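Worked example 2:
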Amino acid sequence: MRQADVVTDLRRVAVWRGDAAVVVPADQPVVTAFDLGLGRGDGVFESVAVVDGGTPHLDEHLARMARSAAIMELADPGEQTWRAMVDAVLASWPVEIEGVCRLFLTRGLGAGLPPTALALLSPVSPEVVRQRTAGLSVVTLGLGVPAAFRAEAPWLLGGAKTLSYAVNMAAQRHAQRLGADDVVFTSLEGQLLEGPTSTVVWSADGVLHTPPLETGILAGTTSARLFARAGAAGRPTSFTAGTVDDLHAADGVWLLSGVRGVATVHTLDGVPRGDAGLSAGVRALLAG
């Protein structure tokens, strides 16, 4: 069987209908064309890693989904609903295949009508695995806002994981045209923010650093777990208002995300860089 056929056969979709999670064929339409998530990007989502047939970090993602829904003033169907949907798509999933379960919540048809809730399950792409193992070439790009502005502008939805990812995807395409894999956004003043789908972490003088949440960036579930475990192991951590120069001077730089995990940055703005042998230790902290 061809790989494309394998991927097609493995995809799973569940939709919440009434009071139950209903699994439907992957190619069956599940939302109306008038859904506000489709027409306006009016919704939130999470991407949850599926490892050994389970979702070991689902709790953190559901908590962030609830926060995002609150910021968006969306009616969240609740943890029990999401767990039922995840269980539905995971039923009989091959334990040897690493997957990604994407949870989507949209405003539906609006006007007081129920929201749309979906769970999609598919294998992790080969490109994600490649970046995890081979590392990344990254470019820095300006996001066009001051670092502190989003915290004072709730209409910009800072800290919410929304469906409005067109700018994020355009940034990644721009990076690829430049011959790079991914992006780290910076503020108007040159302060580090985040990647389009990741959190940036760097090590300097034995301290793990990541940008402060007050900049309006998304609170990374993987970076939070890393910092918690580093603290428990006696390794210092810091929320730091860093710059691109700090990344160039760092002992190691990584992009962290829930499905890709830890991806070592081996090239930054065209300049090759090492990791001082630290990447294995960072991965070990997350695996512990």
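The chain is about 30% helix and 25% strand. Residues 58-72 form the longest helix (15 residues).
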